[in-house]
Amino acid sequence: MKRRDFLKTAAVAGAAATFSGCTREQIEGKKSFNVSRQRKVKLKLATSWPANFPIMGTGVDRFAEKVKTMSGGSLEIKVYPKNILVPALAVFDATSSGQIDAFHSGPYYWKGKNPAFALFSGLPLGMVASELKCWMDYGGGYELWRELYAKYNLHPFVGGNTGVQMGGWFRKPIESLDDLKGLKMRIPGLGGEVMAKLGVNPILLPAGEIYTSLERGTIDATEWVGPALDIRMGFYKVARYYYTGWHEPGSILELTFNKARFDSLGDEHKAIIRYAAEAMTTEMYHEFMDENAKALKKLKEVHVEIRDFPPDIIEAAKKALMQVVEEQSAKSGDFKRVFASMDAYERVIRPWTDISEAKYLSIR
Known about the structure:
alpha/beta; D-Maltodextrin-Binding Protein, domain 2; 2 domains; 6-stranded mixed beta sheet; 5-stranded mixed beta sheet; 14 helices; 13% strand
């Protein structure tokens, strides 16, 4: 058995003992091998989140712990919260240049560098988390992502998923499409571009300014993530109406490495990073599910009114989305190519999703 095959088998099996001390000699009765005997490697990873930020930040911390354990201490990743090594939204450039070795953030933040990058976070009214992961793994998503990121000397992994995000907090109820006209809303990414087509004035604000802006009426509405993180922001204190979501049905987060640095690692360390990232993605998604459920119960207790957007808004959003896609595709060949890949894969997987999970949920 080759060393790479051994490690992959061990990682898939999740045998902690194998990584913490069990040698190849103990497994095969042959010459011993242990990843902890490799040259020790230390990497610096910066995030776009504050220290101890729930789920996303703490998930990265657990990722680093797994890497150290699985490598027997031969690979250490030091995690730095935002603004410690570099500002929150400077992590892409810092990793690209080799100032740091890796970062954890969201691909939609970099759409100014290439419009196609926003698509790797997901598409409004598009695939949900499980479908997006299938596209990445089996539908060509990873190949496209890594091809485009390689131009910036970067090598990305999926590093978590928020699941379906909520549609936002509104100071006043939204009864029809007309109620969106002139509305000032904090909403980024492609969802913001779609909302702009519906008459909304999208506003970009850092996290620390959102609550105050909503409280003072500087903005009329804001989206954030979901109950687990939204309740910590206190939005329910100043905006009573909480709408279900469509603009981010399964937002992918990224764990991205400097490509030259990643390529210099040994095969065992590369495999450890890969499987630790897979574990982080799964754990983060399920933690969001669990924490959102608990927070939703608390929000109901404080009499938050949870609503769906009216049908005319959803229909208008679908049409606006296609306008945005056509405009971006005309401007960027990369956007056109990535969207075509996503759209083709959704046509493959959606019929199964519709008759399996969607049908079951409708029955339940």
